[in-house]
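Handout, section 4.2: multi-component inputs.
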Amino acid sequence: MTAPITAASIALDGGVLAAEDAAPEAAFIPSRGFWGHVGHRLVRDPVAVSAGALILLVVIVAILSPWITPMDPYKGSMLRRLRHVGDATYWLGSDELGRDMISRLMLGARLSLFIGVTPVLIAFVIGSAIGILAGYVGGWTNTILMRTIDVFFAFPSVLLAIALSGALGAGIFNSIVSLTCVFVPQIARVAESVTTGIRRRDYIDAAKLSGASALTIMRVQVLGNVVGPIFVYATSLISVSMILASGLSFLGLGVRPPEPEWGLMLNTLRTAIYVNPVVAALPGVCIFIVSIAFNLFSDGLRSAMEIRQ
Amino acid sequence: MSNPMPPSEPAVALKDLRVAFGKVQVVDGVDLTVERGQALALIGESGSGKSVTLRAILRLFPEGRSRIEGKILAAGKDVQALTKRQLADFRGGDVSMIFQEPLLAFDPVYTVGQQITEAIHRHEKISKGDARKRALALFERVRIPSPERRLDNYPHEMSGGMRQRAMIALALSCHPQVLLADEPTTALDATVQIQVLLLLRELQRDLGLSIVIVTHDLGAAVEVADRIAVMYAGKIVETGTAHQVVLNPHHPYTIGLLRSRAEGALAKGSRLQTIPGSPPDLANRPPGCPFAPRCFLAEERCRREMPPVGDIAPGHQVACWRTEEAAAAYRAGPTPVRAAELVPA
Amino acid sequence: MSVIPDAPDPFAHDRGGPAQPLLSVSGLIKHFPVRKTGGKKQVVRAVDGIDFDVLKGETLGIVGESGCGKSTTAKLLMGLIARDSGHMLYDGQAIGERAMPWRSYRRQVQMVFQDSYASLNPRMTVEQSIAFGPKVNGVPGREAVERARALLARVGLEPKRFAGRYPHEISGGQRQRVNIARSLALEPRLVLLDEAVSALDKSVEAQVLNLLLDLKAEFGLTYIFISHDLNVVRFISDRVMVMYLGRVSEIGPSDTVLDAPAHPYTEALLASMPSLDPDNRTQAALLQGDPPNPIDPPTGCRFHPRCALAEGVCAEKEPPLDAIRPLHRVACLARQPGSGHSAAPGEALAA
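Output:
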């Protein structure tokens, strides 16, 4: 389509510039910005939207839980222990100390999400910084940083988490620290590879030619291009983090009773598995659902971010 | 090995070819004929639809995402009607193609010789020794030095020009009658480019090969082709012999293309004559002639109605309402090639 | 356009007068090591000793085929890679020393790359890309954006329509205009155009060439124009330099060099241009084979294995780049008096 030829659109070489003259293969896309683009595509992805909605629901429940739990999550009754699902008073049953499962699961969401997301967030910041620096600067800096990171890769993540937790001791804070240490190398590696991929591009050269310092180039030119893929990778780690955190609690290295946390609940309900298997599995189901939701969302995010050339 | 066609049938005949990807009509009614043993150049800029036209001849587009209408006849066969099996025989056996970037056409993990013999075996049942002999002969034909050694080279071990020759050898390995070339020399250095162009001309002469070459370089077109067809926005605007199109153009776009070349005839310091504007948005085609917004001769009728293809001279067709004015304007202004003698009607 | 308010730049204005070359290069060498498993260590002699000057206000064209070293030369001139040896002087001042650090040099010399898409950050708008240079050099944000918009208008892109666009939303020709605008954002005196129009359609190329001519006249720029297209180089350049295998083979006024080439390689390059006359098509290629690899250049004159005029002496002596006419230098023994070549002219000519 061509706009009317106005005085404003006549170029100085005497030619006339067609108005919406995008390359014939690409239709004219209204300028939306990169993240606007991503959002636009994301909301059209039903799977990602459902997963996102579910995550949002769990987060809201977790935040509001102290006020909306139907019963007191800490109050137990030995007379009413291990009720089955569908019980008149305890709709999802009660645990081994007679506490209401619904209330415990809701409150448990807080800690589980917190321990799941926080290490990934911190690792995202630290890991990206290390990876981008190593990727951009290259040479000896890269070698030193990345080979150090490689040492951590020698350990399976579960083992590493357990070892660190064991060394630091139990508790929420220590679990977060040990999980962060597990994820930093993974994120750093992804960050480094993505940054190395764009380091040689012409626009980075052009940025160097403007006299900008390496730090400025990394901040302004590189960051925007790499943060996307790293972020997608990080969101896929959230599910891993939740499961690892649950595992730590299960082993007694994470959250301490009577705090509700899904992994810890799995541990304490373990003994009841023959008596009331459904209730014993419920915390596991919650972990599963939230993990899958994060995974699917991160998948959708990655698809939405594929910039077509 | 393809059965030779009856001599009177054209090598390639496209009738009202239309190709659309989704909502975008990339090729909009193309009529083209290439006689046997003839070379035709399809010239145009990016977005003109020339590469798509070429690839349609070999049905290279996935069925689901493209819509092809019209008649495509090549090497005496109706391409649209071929079954999958027949199509596989057709490609390489009757019609073959070479591409712009040889590195992309070759598999990097096999030697060039292996790929050529594999292609031969796909179409014919001959022994390995005979296939290799044929590959050797092909390498000699395309003038690759030390052919025996080069057969065992991997694609990345060869230089650009040699890779292009190897690709030509691969394309000719099963004796096709028609060779399609999609910008074969665009990525090559000047001294190599002229060698490859001359080679194509030689093959046309010696093997009776019919060639359709797609290029944006007018010089390459003139060197190889007997006839030239100029495409714009999915339509052919001018067709004729190389002599007619280059020396006596009758379409404003052809004239604009000729004039915007920075030939030596221009005085230093003067400015180039440009075609104003940019190629059109194919998703939103204007009703009339697609070139009208940029045409220095455009009038009301041009914007309303698409001009029909008319005959200027035998074999010279132009789709324009104002061919006489165009030709006159060309003769009056700078003529980059040389002043044309008036071609008798 | 306003002057960058940073520290006053002593190089923004002419120092040595018109006689002093704006850029002077001598003995520039760059070798790249090639890692070969086993065997002896080899080097790619990408640039193997080149000397040339760029005069103020001119356009110097650099032509050559793959392996000649013109891209490496461009990167060396811009300081994107470090040279192995050689001198580079900008308006009489050595580059990289205390009086002229690289950062200062970069305000004077800018570059436009070949790939219009790869040279723009896909995550930054056109306006942001252009404003980046000035911002980094101390221009306040708003002023940098205004300057970016003014430049967009100057290169023929209406700012209202294009400033907020991303590179993938505009066409190749428009992107290249953006690249040109960006290169001018720091008010350089010298612009290096590395195959800047090669990837464009011919009609768009013509528009951009006209634009380059206009900008050069308006801002008093000096251009180095690297290209493989001899027609374009001839049209836009005052002088042209022909490179082969990392060395300069010929340098002189473009009309002279391209009308009456003295070096056999230049002659072959000219003969390789496809003919536009259907009745006078090229009958034979002057050169066979591909441009050679700069890993193991031939001894003596690098062109001698493919040269029609080659004699024994050509394999022994490397021809110096000597003047055969005022301002016209050629590295060919057959053109230099007293070189030992049978076709060499008799008396020495006045330099």
